């Protein structure tokens, strides 16, 4: 998440969901954003301005005429200050006023005067949400370029079950982050492979490895956030499927190869963060092998298709990023893979290092490009590392 030094103006309107809004401030602050809060008079009935003041470290604004600071015109200076205005929760009343261009309180006045991005996060009774007037108002705002988010389907405060619950604070902050991120990968098709593969021995057992899929999933999320069309081809993992254009679930290395082949021609960037099994059993047993079976003592293995090598050999315009998981002499082995698989860039991790490799949320890598430039970005979260990798991919794309 990259919200450092971003100015977020949070508008809070009167609704029971307002009790969750301080958490939005908290998450934004933790991620380095500057936050100011504007409340409507009815919002104050639900949460005190002091709560937001304490959490944001800023004066909370709610009176239209009494808070001129340094002779600034408050609604103009707040509107100019914000990189993004987020109204959460947004009541039907405030949505209607904003859609109509009314400016009868500080929040609606700031909204009317703003030229920055605006995100409306509705929260209300399901019948109000779906009322003809509210739907028309939300559509009007969408047509003006305002971001109007979904609501959640749940048991609501009024005891009705349906749409209308405000998104969770973490989801709201994710959306703020998404909408404030420059879409510098827009128009590019990415295929990213992630996770382990499984090679079945019999209906019960398989050969696999320790890949959790975290590195590949973070890359997929980061590329999506930057506007790329992402197809994520994943072996079995325990991770939540991220918000990507296409998610393809595979089991074996052959399945992964088939999936890459389907998309490769239209791909601009192939990132091979997966750890496909290099070998598979020569014979698959349809029946569960018994402990007493003679062939349980040894399983004959045969090499699997090397997906990266195959597509490296036939690539035309594609930028291909490989990974190398090594347990010693990583730079040497990595360089050999860069050449033999015709990668444009390789990300090398020594999986024996404490802060690197399988399952961890952080990674320590060396990145080597085809011109043998070596970058060592240091130990960092896989999310942040993904952006470092994507920055380099963008350089290759621009130079094509
Ligand atoms: O998933 P995590 O828990 O987050 O861990 C991340 C990771 C350590 C799995 C990842 O960062 C990584 O290093 N992936 C590559 C693992 C691997 O298979 O390395 P390799 O050195 O065996 O293969 C080199 C390259 O060829 C890799 O890009 C691999 O995807 C590819 N390959 C390998 C074998 C094969 N049959 N087909 C392939 O395409």
TrEMBL record:
Residues 1-189 are annotated as: Phosphopantothenoylcysteine decarboxylase. It catalyses: (R)-4'-phosphopantothenate + L-cysteine + CTP = N-[(R)-4-phosphopantothenoyl]-L-cysteine + CMP + diphosphate + H(+); N-[(R)-4-phosphopantothenoyl]-L-cysteine + H(+) = (R)-4'-phosphopantetheine + CO2. Keywords: Decarboxylase, Flavoprotein, FMN, Ligase, Lyase, Magnesium, Metal-binding, Multifunctional enzyme. Residues 190-400 are annotated as: Phosphopantothenate--cysteine ligase. Residues 185-395 form the DNA/pantothenate metabolism flavoprotein C-terminal domain. Residues 6-176 form the Flavoprotein domain. It comes from the Bacteria. One of its GO terms (molecular function) is phosphopantothenate--cysteine ligase activity. Its cofactor is FMN; Mg(2+). InterPro entries: CoaB-like_sf, CoaBC, DNA/pantothenate-metab_flavo_C, Flavin_trans-like, Flavoprotein. Its EC number is 4.1.1.36, 6.3.2.5. Binds 1 FMN per subunit. One of its GO terms (cellular component) is phosphopantothenoylcysteine decarboxylase complex. The active site is at residue 158. GO terms for biological process: coenzyme A biosynthetic process; pantothenate catabolic process. Pathway: Cofactor biosynthesis; coenzyme A biosynthesis; CoA from (R)-pantothenate: step 3/5; Cofactor biosynthesis; coenzyme A biosynthesis; CoA from (R)-pantothenate: step 2/5. CTP binds at residues 278, 288, 323, 337, 341. NCBIfam families: coaBC_dfp. PANTHER family: HOMO-OLIGOMERIC FLAVIN CONTAINING CYS DECARBOXYLASE FAMILY, PHOSPHOPANTOTHENOYLCYSTEINE DECARBOXYLASE. Catalyzes two sequential steps in the biosynthesis of coenzyme A. In the first step cysteine is conjugated to 4'-phosphopantothenate to form 4-phosphopantothenoylcysteine. In the second step the latter compound is decarboxylated to form 4'-phosphopantotheine. Catalyzes two steps in the biosynthesis of coenzyme A. In the first step cysteine is conjugated to 4'-phosphopantothenate to form 4-phosphopantothenoylcysteine, in the latter compound is decarboxylated to form 4'-phosphopantotheine. In the C-terminal section; belongs to the PPC synthetase family. HAMAP family: CoaBC. This is Coenzyme A biosynthesis bifunctional protein CoaBC. It comes from Peptoniphilus indolicus ATCC 29427. The lineage of its organism: Bacteria, Bacillati, Bacillota, Tissierellia, Tissierellales. The gene is coaBC.
């Amino acid at each position: 998440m990259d919200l450092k030094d971003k100015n977020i103006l949070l508008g809070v309107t009167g609704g029971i969901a307002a009790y969750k809004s301080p958490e939005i401030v908290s998450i934004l602050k933790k991620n380095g954003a500057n936050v100011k809060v504007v409340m409507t008079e009815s919002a104050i009935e639900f949460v005190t301005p002091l709560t937001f003041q304490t959490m944001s470290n800023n004066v909370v604004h709610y009176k239209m005429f009494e808070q001129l600071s340094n002779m600034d015109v408050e609604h103009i200076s707040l509107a100019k200050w914000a990189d993004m205005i987020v109204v959460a929760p947004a009541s039907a009343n405030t949505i209607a006023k904003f859609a109509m261009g009314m400016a009868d309180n500080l929040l609606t006045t700031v909204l009317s005067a703003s030229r920055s991005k605006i995100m409306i996060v509705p929260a209300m009774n399901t019948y109000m949400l779906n009322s003809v007037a509210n739907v028309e108002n939300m559509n009007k705002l969408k047509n003006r370029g305002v971001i109007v988010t979904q609501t959640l389907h749940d048991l609501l405060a009024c005891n009705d079950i349906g749409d209308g619950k405000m998104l969770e604070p973490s989801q709201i902050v994710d959306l703020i982050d998404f909408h404030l991120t420059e879409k510098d990968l827009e128009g590019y098709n990415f295929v990213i492979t992630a996770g382990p593969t499984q090679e079945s021995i019999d209906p019960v057992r398989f050969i696999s490895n320790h890949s959790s899929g975290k590195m590949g999933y973070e890359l997929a999320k980061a590329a999506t956030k930057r506007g790329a069309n992402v197809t994520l081809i994943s072996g079995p993992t325990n991770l939540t499927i991220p918000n990507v254009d296409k998610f393809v679930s595979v089991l074996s290395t052959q399945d992964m190869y088939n999936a890459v082949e389907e998309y490769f021609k239209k791909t601009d960037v192939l990132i091979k963060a997966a750890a496909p099994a290099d070998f598979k059993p020569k014979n698959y047993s349809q029946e569960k092998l018994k402990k007493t079976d003679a062939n349980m003592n040894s399983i004959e293995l045969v090499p699997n298709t090397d997906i990266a090598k195959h597509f490296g050999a036939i690539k035309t315009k594609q930028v291909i990023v490989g990974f190398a998981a090594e347990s010693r002499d990583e730079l040497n082995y990595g360089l050999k893979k860069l050449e033999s698989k015709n990668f444009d860039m390789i990300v090398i991790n020594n999986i024996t290092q404490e802060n690197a490799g399988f399952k961890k949320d952080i990674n320590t890598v060396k990145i080597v490009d085809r011109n043998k430039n070596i970058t060592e970005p240091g130990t960092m979260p896989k999310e942040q590392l993904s952006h470092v990798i994507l920055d380099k991919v963008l350089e290759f794309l621009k130079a094509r």
